[in-house]
Structures are given as C-alpha cells and as structure tokens.
Amino acid sequence: MLDYARHRGVPAVALCVSNTYGPGDWQPTPHGSLVAMAAAGKMPVYVKDMAMEVVGIEDAARALILAADKGRVGERYIISERFISARELYATAADAAGVKRPRFGIPLKAMYALGFCGDVAVASRTDPQWIRKVVHFYRSQAVAEHRASRAR
Fold first, then answer.
1. CATH classification of the domain holding 23
2. What is the 3-state secondary structure (H, E, C) of 80-144?
3. How far apart are CA 38 and CA 106, in angstroms?
4. How many CB atoms sit inside 10 A of residue 29's CB?
5. I need a surface site. Which of 19, 28, 67, 135 has the fewest CB within 10 A?
6. How far apart are CA 125 and CA 2, in angstroms?
7. Residue 108 belongs to what domain range?
8. Boundaries of each NAD-dependent epimerase/dehydratase domain copy (predicted)?
9. CB 65 within 8 A of CB 4
10. pLDDT (tens digit, 9 = 90+) per residue, 19-31?
C-alpha cells in the first residue's frame, strides 16, 4: 500500500493493528468471536500453547486518530498493547463478564487433530468451529506478529 501511495503521490500512513478486544469491538472476526464466547461463558477450553498480540479497541481507535493527525507520511506503525496467552486473554474476558473462565487447556497438537475433524465436517457440508488451516494460521500469526512488533 505504501509503495502504491508513494508512486502516485498519495500521502499515506500504514497501520498494523493487532487483535482487538473490548467493549464495542463487534467485528465478526475469528479472534473477536472467541473473546465473545469466553465473555458469554461458552468457552470451556482454551489452547495451551497459544499467545497473541492484542490491543484494546478504544486504544486502537485512538491510535488510528493519532496516526491520521500526527503520523509521518510513508511510515508504518504497529498498534499493539501486549503479547498475551490465550489462557489469560479468555480468563480476563470471562472475569470482566462475571462468568466461568475456560478451565481446560488443550495442547496445540490436539487442536490440529480437532482441525482435521473440522476439515471432515467441511467436506460433509457441516459448519465446523475449528478447521486445520485456521489453527495453523492462528499459531503462525501469533508468533510472527510478536516477533515483528519486538523487532521495531
């Protein structure tokens, strides 16, 4: 995007917003849906080996406004609050809503097995919660986002 803008003389600033959470974050993303499930007390398990970059939705909104007002043209900004385990994130959502926390941690390798079951569900035209590609995507993104944010 920055190259496109630079070549066409468009003043642009790029923002890389990590996974958002908090009141008013109603975008139906996979991440947001999982946080909502935890806040509704409908998530009995979490993935043990997962962690991700997160930022509160209100902080992300303020960062977008600041970047529009004060960001340097041609720059890219990473918008993140912290790197947090899935266990801590979902427990925080459950605590804030006054519901039971997810109690059991499932190893990532077991989630891949569940993802395979999800692939079978897709092939049989049912609606799975977890498919193998999604599990792999979450794992790879969490590590990549954290490394990128710490490198800056």
1. 3.40.50.720
2. CCEEEEHHHHHHHHHHHHCCCCCCEEECHHHHHHHHHHHHHHHHCCCCCCCCHHHHHHHHHHHHH
3. 15
4. 12
5. 28
6. 40
7. 2-151
8. 3-79
9. no
10. 888 877 666 577 8
Q: Which amino acid is at 130?
A: W
Q: Strand order of the sheet with strand 51-56?
A: 19-21, 51-56, 82-85
Residue 129 predicted with pLDDT over 80? no
pLDDT at residue 144, rounded to an integer: 54
Contact 37, 99 (CB under 8 A): no
The token duo for 39 is: 């806040």
What pLDDT is recorded for position 145? 52
DSSP notation for 26-50: ----HHHHHHHHHHTT---EEETT-
**Assigned token pair, 91:** 């427990």
**pLDDT(124) > 90:** no
Strand-pair partners of 19: 54
In the block, residue with structure tokens 């490394």:
147
Q: Residues 40-47: what's their mean pLDDT?
A: 90
Q: Give the pLDDT confidence score for residue 96 in this predicted structure.
A: 94
Q: How many structural domains compose the chain?
A: 1
Q: What does the alpha-carbon distance between residue 135 and residue 119 come to, in Å, rounded to a whole number?
A: 11
Q: From CA 149, how far away is CA 152, in angstroms rounded?
A: 6
